[in-house]
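Limitations

Structures in this collection are predictions, not experimental determinations, and the ligand pose is part of the prediction. Treat each record accordingly. The example that follows, with 2-(butylsulfanyl)adenosine as the small molecule, is included so readers can see exactly what is and is not provided: the inputs are given verbatim, and the output is the predicted complex.
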Amino acid sequence: MTLDELLDQSGDDRLDREEAARIMEALRGELTRHARLYYVEDRQEIDDSVYDALFRRLQRLEEAFPDLVTPDSPTLRVGADPLEAFETVRHVVPMLSLDSTQEPEDVRRFDERVRRVLGDDVVYILEPKLDGASIELVYEQGVLVRAVTRGNGMEGEDVTANARTIPTLPLRLDESRRPAPALLAARGEVLMYLSAFEALNQRMVEQGAEPYVNPRNSASGSLRQLDPRLTAERPLDVLVYDVLAVDGATFETDHEALEALGDWGFRRPKRIELARTVDEILAYHEAFARDRDDLDYEIDGVVIKVDERAARDVLGATSHHPRWALAFKFEPRKEVTRIERIALSVGRTGRVTPVALMRPVMVGGVTVSRASLHNREEVARKDIREGDLVRIQRAGDVIPQVVERVDEPGRERGPEFRMPDTCPACGAPLHQDGPATFCPNRFECPAQLKGGIVHYASRPGLDIEGLGQETAELLVERGLVRELSDLYDLTPEQLVELPGFAEKSATALVDAIQRSRHTELARFLYGLGIPEVGQTVARELAAHFRDVRAVLEATPEELEAVDGVGPVMSARIRAFLDDSRNREHIEHVLAKGLVLEPPEEREGGPLEGKRFVFTGSLSIPRGRAKAMVEAAGGRVVSSVSGETDYVVAGEDPGSKLAKAEKLGVPVLDETAFLALLDGGAGE
Ligand code: IVH
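Predicted complex:
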């Protein structure tokens, strides 16, 4: 079909199924080709607006013919519906990890062992060791059917819906250069580029969320979002470097396999080389160690592999590591600098953390000037004082650690660090809790209030744009906000007086605050900063109680009926809500006219609102069973309570079965479960 035909949607409301299927296939092919040109080959044949028009037409046709949506549809890249949990699945072949060393001596020994078995004619393939999140990608008949995290090496989490959102990952193998095999399991690394990582962290800090520690955590955290739409917003890439299994193609060597991966449209690590001697390996390692700061992604060493694939079987593996490969790691990046001051930072929960403020120094391409010293015991153990020279390290982590003090004989040192007796922010006497120090002045301490405001306004919270650390600080210092509810009384006239604000930004912030009164219940519950209530628990509470009053009044037992809430958590939540000052503050906020929406429920299914718990093994995979329940409007939760409607017991059921019997919850075997889904034998 021509581009014009693909863009012409005048007859779309009269299409029959067959014709729709034909057009949808053509649209998928065209969209896939242009996405590959753009993301992988870095060129563009059509305008963005044309791409968008094709995309929207496919989306509309998929809405009209939902059963014609295929797993390689580019529309899946924007992110599917959120999941309750990831399904655990087995890898096609185990994903081993690599034995690793930093010593050239070990590389020589590795080479000797390899030569003893294979003889002297050995070729190695050398690759950068990417510091990201390892992933298995399974393609059947050329279509991506599964993406699985490494997990424990035998089984991992099914993150297919999330992986599909990574623009450079082929949903279908490119067959223009080489036919797709019947089965391909490839291994790669999901990465976040350093530039993207720093931008993301900056955004998170501005929004008051906790930044990621390093690009690896950020990549793996992004990949493991239950809501694929969140993953879709994260700038991820995936580089593929290994064929784990293939059916319908053969490769003599690893470099041929890599060539095929390239032909099929995968992005691969750069600077892959072949080598025949240890000296060549050492030179490659040295060159990469020198250049690694020029890359826009983290590598923590190089990987040495025997190039010949048949040698993999000959050399075999220990229970953890293949004997045909070795990771040759770089030294962590270290620098020496001086501590100018040890400052104290008071967080939202009152925790007081000593922070080393250092003379700025470049460590692996990133300027470092502060490092947490964690707590007073840590400072004492490392014997660190103001004015000391220290060695700091950044082992892939952007947030550096103070490794040790560097001795300077003859130099007079400053006094030992002492945690003050009173809070640096409010003057209240500090409390010790093990090695940690807390300011107990929850309601008057300006530092805690600032932290609380930033958390409330953060992206996963009420998502108030423009209300970050700096603004929160000003609002508290000027006495404009004494508790959260005061936010809603702010006027543009007040804000315009603050440094950094103009009329437009002042109005915008007030508007954003007012708009936030209409929000999701889960965001509000998260934003309150209740102990134990992170994003997940907040979502569960909102889905379970559906109303803020119901949460505020819930008994400990009722709280424990919520998925993921145990007795310790419920007690801490209850203690917070029972505190009269907390309660007063919450009421003040609610009195500002908040409209809190419970999460949408799938309506109209035969099992609408029913709660299921699975125990034991079924003949269908858990994930399928769960999807079937959800498609019928039900929900799957992990623990049995009085509110459970059905327990589905497979083979070897666990303690949940006993609990169900005790509570009188109906128990179904697999047959009865399937019958119920069919709308047959019910209660
Ligand atoms: S080969 C059986 N090559 O490093 C070994 N691994 O423990 C197959 N990694 O998480 C892995 N870059 O995912 C190989 N070029 C590369 C790699 C690489 C990064 C990861 C791997 C694993 C860790 C090694």
